[in-house]
Amino acid sequence: MESCCWLILFMEHLKELEGKSVHDYYHQVKMERPIWVPGPVIVGAGPSGLAAAACLKQKGIQSLILERADCLGSMWQFKTYDRLCLHLPKQFCELPFMPFPKTFPSYPTKQQFLDYLKAYADHFDIKPALSKTVVSANFDHRCGCWRVKTTEGLKKEETEYVCQWLIVATGENAEEVVPSIEGMDEFEGPILHTSSYKSGTMFCGKKVLVVGCGNSGMEVSLDLCNHNAHPSLVVRDTVHILPQQMFGKSTFGLCMRLLKWFPVRVVDKFLLVMSHLMLGDTAQFGLHRPKIGPLELKNLYGKTPVLDVGTLAQIRTGKIKVCRGIKQLRKERVEFVDGKAENFDAIILATGYKSNVAAWLKSSEIRNGWKGENGLYAVGFTKRGLLGASIDAKRIAQHIQHCCKPSHLHIQSNYSFLHPSQL
């Protein structure tokens, strides 16, 4: 009965809005009638969005995914470099209810991961609405529902979806972070973000400055080195570098086991001792460690330690140089904060990404990383990678199933309803 009343109120409110639009002289944008989605609307068809849709389907709940790109996993498809492999073993990166193929290596390649995403969508019959850019999402308190507006195509044709639950799955890496460096407009060589970097082939024989010493910066520097470029790495802050494997096991997997028995600080001390034995004192190369341990730093600030895949060996031999922070750029020259200066042919910004949720999600916030108010949820914002996204997806599906009150009421109206078979 409660669901019926809610739906009737919603329909009456839509009719009222339609009446206002007809008489609004300034209503110039032609928009199709709102589409009522009986299940959750998920924004983003990357791993997080697919995981959420699959978990909901396992609970018997259909959903609709809206994706701005024309494919699944667009971030992995278009904004990653060719040599990229998963930094963690595949068992910690698989999505719910479907492991990676046994034939895949422990650290699947970029293309293997993309193949896995497609197979995952096919297996659960997930068919996102592609090329739909969400421009706004507002909770309408009058009708108690979410109003999600999208644009599509060159003409920016608008569509409005109305739903009871909204799941944000665009992730923390939706938009590039491009720092403002004095003299950027003056520098004559190319300056590109790692999202545009594919391989070091085009930089063979060139002096390239990589800005940022996270996992991407370290790996891009190694890739440049392997393609006979001459990379230098800008390291402004302290950084934890850990071996990717210890005792023949993944460092991450080993940490997961140890944390079941020991507190974080004890495991951190173990990691630092082993890293010193296996990698040596990284400070002698200009890579100073934070005072806080790697796991505690991750928990407190979300800063991920670097898992070394061979970069440190090249730094040790001098093939990759370590530089301090940039003071300013000249035509071909880079001046550093320590007073040194050097000429470079190109600059690559390994400065990370940020969320774009604030640009379209209005007047709402997500607490505890996965749940907000009024039927708002988020997947992949807990800074725990693909494993965290899978945990979020299962939790959200369970919560929506608990709250779900299906209605069998059918109302004739001038508004489109998206039948479950169309989701």
Query: What strand line-up does the widest sheet have?
Result: 4-5-6-1-25
CATH architecture of the largest domain: 3-Layer(bba) Sandwich
Distance between the termini: 25 Å
* Rg, alpha carbons: 25 Å
CATH superfamily of the largest domain: FAD/NAD(P)-binding domain
Number of distinct helices: 10
Q: In percent terms, what proportion of residues is strand?
A: 15-25%
Number of domains: 2
The first-level CATH class name of the largest domain: Alpha Beta
Helical/strand content category: alpha/beta
| CATH T-level fold name of the largest domain | FAD/NAD(P)-binding domain
Percent in helix: 25-40%
Mean pLDDT: 87
How would the global form be characterised? globular
Tally of strands: 25
* Model regions low in confidence, pLDDT < 50 over at least 5 residues: 1-9, 17-30, 406-415
Largest sheet: 5 strands, mixed
Question: What are the salient characteristics of this protein?
Answer:
423 residues; alpha/beta; FAD/NAD(P)-binding domain; 2 domains; five-stranded mixed beta sheet; 10 helices; 25 strands; 29% helix; 21% strand; globular; disordered N terminus; auxin biosynthesis; indole-3-pyruvate monooxygenase activity; NADP binding; EC 1.-.-.-
